[in-house]
Each structure stands twice: as structure tokens, then as C-alpha cells.
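Late entry, written up from scratch paper. The run itself happened at the end of the previous shift, but nothing got recorded in the book at the time, so transcribing now.
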Amino acid sequence: MASILDLPHELVDRIVSEFQHDPFNLRTCALISSAFLPWSRQRLFSIVRLTASNIYAFRALIESSPTVASYVRRLEMPMMDNFPPSAILPPATLAQLPNVTDLSAHSDPFDFRQLPTGQEIVLAEAARRLTTVEILIDRLWPLPAWAALLNGCPALATLVIKAEATGWGSWTAADVAFPMPAPFAPGTLRLRTLRVSGDCKILVPLSAWLVPQCALAALQTLVLDVSYLLDDYSAPDARPALVLAAAPSLRELTLHLDPPMPLTSPETVLPIGLTSFPRLRTLHLRDGPDADIGASLAWLGAFLQPPSSSPHAHMHTEPSALEELSPDHSMIRRDLLTVPAASWRAIEEALLGGEGDAGGNGKGEQYPHLRNVTFKGYQKFSLGAPDAFEHFSRTVRERLPRLVERGMLAVGR
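Output as recorded:
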């Protein structure tokens, strides 16, 4: 007589997958039969989120059931109010999770300042297999400890950092001017994706850490969606150093343009422009509610222009790989209407060439792969008025008629 143990693995997997978002029924499946146990555990424990109510139970489970530990792939350790860091996760517990590759944590989940040397070694060895790390930085002092730890992670491909200053107000420029650790072996850390959001001043220590060791030399996706306040404008702008370090390999770039990023850098004699990014396919531009839309669009026109005035203008440059351009600006109608016509014209001429360029057909040769230019941000255009999108779309289309004619202009809802 056939038994439940004789069911094909594919059928068991299909049955259990029906409850993958239902922990109660997953636990029931695990009790039905030993045939269901590994499939149920895989879905129950592949992502573990530690909280004040389960942290001690999880640590006890790992100690008593090593088999369960092998199912954990992603570990999330959010901030726990009134919880000492030492109560979150000892390095020895992380070392017992052999298949964890994704880690999401707050500033100090391992109690960095109290770690004895032996535990530092255990933590470093356990972290070597990490491929994705997400960190909420609300205090600056753990950042060098994270840098020292991640320097020894050759498999790390994705780093996500959200910076939120807490405590006694915002960080100052002096707060972020602290030394970052040097890599033990430069070139060990090679990121593919770097996403940074929150307080712009976090970019200063990040640049001091990642750029000298060439950690961005193979980067493909860079997101610098940081926020600036009025008192941030005088702080050192680390955006040029970060984008130039990743420029040769970058495929996707997101920049916050409030204020516009400088188009020069002490590290290079050439101006920073799209020609600095030979493999870039997607460019997203964003700004905040207090941004100067005229300055943002003028920056875009200058960024798209080939370096005709540079000493190397006579050198042949390969056509850009750019396929998608997406300006997402916090546009207010009166500000958009006051943008000089020259700024709109500079954008069209950079993308399509002058009327007589490219053999007289006006198509241009610099961006042969460009499919569309999508303007976004209309929600802020008229404070939610019913006709906001209509006004926004018409205003942009009237100012970029050649892009409309080529079928390249889109207005995002």
C-alpha cells in the first residue's frame, strides 16, 4: 500500500509551497510526516527576523537543533529598543548558520566595542560567506568596525546603507572626518551593487573607505539617493569620487541632484560627463522638494554634452551605451515655467545633436541606443490637482519638441 513517504519530491514541494506565507500551516505540514519536514523547514527558516520576543528562543533552537541552522539563508536584525547589543547575536551563533549569505542589521548588532579578539576572529570567519549586507547606520562609530569586517568578505556583491542620524541632532562635517580602516589586502572587496540613502554626510567616510581599495572597480549599480539640508551644502561632496571610481564598469546610476553634483573633481583633469561612463545604460536623476529645477536641468544638459572643450576633444570616443534616461524632479509649475529655453535646448542638442549634425538628419550619433527619456515627478507639479498630469505633460512636451518628434519622450504617471 502506498505511503505518504512515496510521494514524489516535486509533489511534496508543490503542496508545501501553497503555505509558504502561512507559518501556522507550515508548522502543521512539518508535523504531518517526515517527508514534509525538510520542505516545511526550508520555508519557515530561510528568512529569520530576530525580535525582542524571539531572539532567545532562536539562539536556543540553533544550539539544540543544528539541522535547522542549515536552512537559514537571510538573517534580519532590526533595531530593538532597550535591548543591549550583546543580547542580539553573538558571533558564535552566526558561525553556526553555515548558509547565511544575506544579512540585514542596525549599527551594532554584535557589540563591536566589547568583542574580545577571539570573537572578532570568529565573526570575521562567519562573515566571509556574505554576499549581501544591509546596514542602518544611526550612529557613526560602528562604521569603521563594519568596514574592517567587510574588508575580509571576498564574496560580498551587494552593500546597502541607510544613514539616519539620531541622538543629539544631525551629524556635522567634523563628525564624519574620522579614519576608516585600511584593507588587509586591497582588491579583496569587489562590489557589484552599492545603494546609499539617507544623510548625505555618510558619503564622506564611505568614499574614504571604498575608493582607495578599488572596491568599486567592478560596480554595476550605484544608487546615491541621499538627502541634503541647507547646512549640508558646505560639507565635502563625496559624490564625484564615488561615481568616478565606478565609472568604467557602471551600468545603472541613480543620483540625487539637490544640489547638483559637481562636474569636476580633483582626481581628474577632465570634466565629469556621460562620456565618463562607457557602459552606462540607465540613468535616474532625482531631487528633493526644495531643489532648484532650473539648476537640475542645466546640470543635465551639461552632463550630457561631449567634452568638446577638453584637451582630448580630438580623440575618438565610442558612442554611449545609454538606453534609458529618467529625470524625476520635484517640479512646481511656476518653477518649471521659468526654466530658460536654453536649458531645454541644451538637453535636446546633447541627445540629438544640432539641426545639422549627424549628416543633417538631426538624430545625433552620441546616443544611438537611447530609447526613451522619461520625465517624472508630476505629483508635485500642482499639489495633487486633478489636471496636474495634463499640465505637466503638456509643459514638458512643448519644451522638448524634437524628442517628441522622434518618439523618445515619455511622461511618467
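DSSP finds 15 helices and twelve strands in the chain.
(Scratch paper discarded after transcription.)
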